[in-house]
Amino acid sequence: HVLEVNYDAAYRRITGKTTLGLNEVLKLMEAFNFTIDDVFSDKKDFIRVTKAEGVNSVDKLGDYFSIATSELKSISQFQKSDIFYSAKDLPVYYSKGTFRKFKMYSFLNVLADQFNFKKVSFDNFDKDEVLVSKLKRLEEVYETVSTIEIWCNDTITSTINQILYFFKIGLLEQEAALLIVKDFKETVKRVENQCITGKRGDNDKTFKLYNNELLNLNNTIFMRGEKEQKLFVPYTTLSYIKISDEETCEEVDRYFKKQLQFSKQLTGDSEVERTIFFNALYKRIDKLGHIIQLG
Question: Tens digits of per-residue pLDDT, 199-256?
Fold first, then answer.
């Protein structure tokens, strides 16, 4: 099927009567996720990784969301599947209204110095909502997969700093900034509601949230399915290395489970811990709104 040859031609290649061509080898490598080193090397300290293309434009950011959506769909097709998320920052799939647009705006502007993205005002950004629609689609697909997230008190810190920064340098008008803060708070409230219900949005997929103040979180995403596991490790703001190596994924699985032992569960009956945690977040968001109101 991969080489698009008939039965006799396939048999000759299997028995060695016909040598595989380079193009055929490349097709097999891509289809079955192996390298030449996997065949000829006995070294166990090397694994194959896939590097995503960096984000340096509006189009590339749209591609990033499309690829992420595709990766999620491949996991969500399994009856038993879930995602571990070590959330150093607020996960990209949480947004609402004006805050959704701001997240993409800040992503591109933060990368501007490195990638020479032309800075524009917030009001003039993504007027046709091309990126907004792609991010919204990503959020919808995320809700079809059970999720375990680990947060800390600083998970929203970068978002607060970004809103304040763009307001202070004049790329955000006061009215727009206050709308972003309002939708930002509503987004966090939605996460709290998921903690209460134990469900992802309107779906029957489970949701669990933990608070960990002992170990460093790093935005690593680990997707688990019945027949597929894959790990996404960030190396810049929007760039990830994808790892599907079975041994590495099993090691990460054990590590995440160990993290949970040192974390406080905020889902379900943990009302006191949950209230304390989210009230602290709301207090910081309200303080941000007060600073913006003062100008």
Answer: 987 778 999 999 998 888 889 999 998 888 999 998 877 788 999 888 899 999 999 9
Query: Residue 78: left if φ>0, alpha if ψ -120 to 50, beta else—which one?
Result: beta
pLDDT score at 295: 82
b or e along 14-43 (b: 16 or more beta carbons within 10 Å of the residue's beta carbon)?
Answer: eeeeeeeeeebeeeeeeeeeeeeeeeeeee
- Give this prediction's pTM: 0.81
Q: Considering only CA atoms, which of 122, 164, 288, 274 is closest in space to residue 211?
A: 274
User: What is d(CA 295, CA 289) in angstroms, rounded to the nearest whole number?
Assistant: 10
User: What is the rounded end-to-end Cα distance, in angstroms, of the chain?
Assistant: 64
**Amino acid, single-letter form, for residue 157:** T
Helix axes 174-197, 157-168, angle to 10 degrees: 170
- Nearest C-alpha neighbor of 101 from the set 48, 143, 162: 162
pLDDT at 116: 47
Compute CA 144 distance to the chain's CA centroid, rounded to the nearest angstrom: 14
Contact between 179 and 98 (Cβ < 8 Å) = yes
Q: Which two tokens stand for residue 133?
A: 């629609």
d(CA 55, CA 235): 12
